[in-house]
Amino acid sequence: MTDIVDQQTRSRMMSRIRGKNTKPELALRRALHARGFRFRLHSKKVYGRPDLVLPKYRAAVFVHGCFWHRHEGCRFATTPSTREEFWRKKFQANVARDEAVREKLLEDCWRLATVWECTLRKPDQVMATADLLSAWLRSNELQLQIGDKDGSTNP
């Protein structure tokens, strides 16, 4: 199957995809800040440069895009029908890197939370996700994943 847009247009479209300061990330940051949490953004001092680092809680928070990080069972984790081999390798590398970062941070005694993009699409979901994350930060749990395949905020 061929692409529906020319190569130059596709290149321009792909170049606009951001890795930092995405809409879901900004929404979660605003909600956590309103709850009194203070954090560092994309800290170079922490392996893997998590989206949010809360040194007081020794916690790292990743806001993962469902498409790029392959949220299992999520309707947003689709695979393009063109250049399937390229995308398969790209996604496998992303997932492998995520796992390596997770293992290294746990080894370094960091607490980890992964928040999937699908849980941050609506304002009420953002508030529910921030509530779950707030409770987790105050707990002693090592890991948290927010986002079921249906986009709910169940941990």
UniProtKB/TrEMBL annotation:
Broad class of enzyme this protein falls into: hydrolase
A single GO BP: mismatch repair
Keywords, ordered alphabetically: DNA damage, DNA repair, Endonuclease, Hydrolase, Nuclease
Organism: Histidinibacterium aquaticum
SUPFAM superfamilies: Restriction endonuclease-like (SSF52980)
Pfam families: Vsr (PF03852)
Job description of the protein: May nick specific sequences that contain T:G mispairs resulting from m5C-deamination.
Gene symbol of the encoding locus: vsr
One MF annotation (Gene Ontology) recorded for this entry: endonuclease activity
EC number from the UniProt entry: 3.1.-.-
Protein name: Very short patch repair endonuclease
The family this protein is said to belong to: Belongs to the vsr family.
InterPro entries with a match to the protein in the record: DNA_mismatch_endonuc_vsr (IPR004603), Restrct_endonuc-II-like (IPR011335)
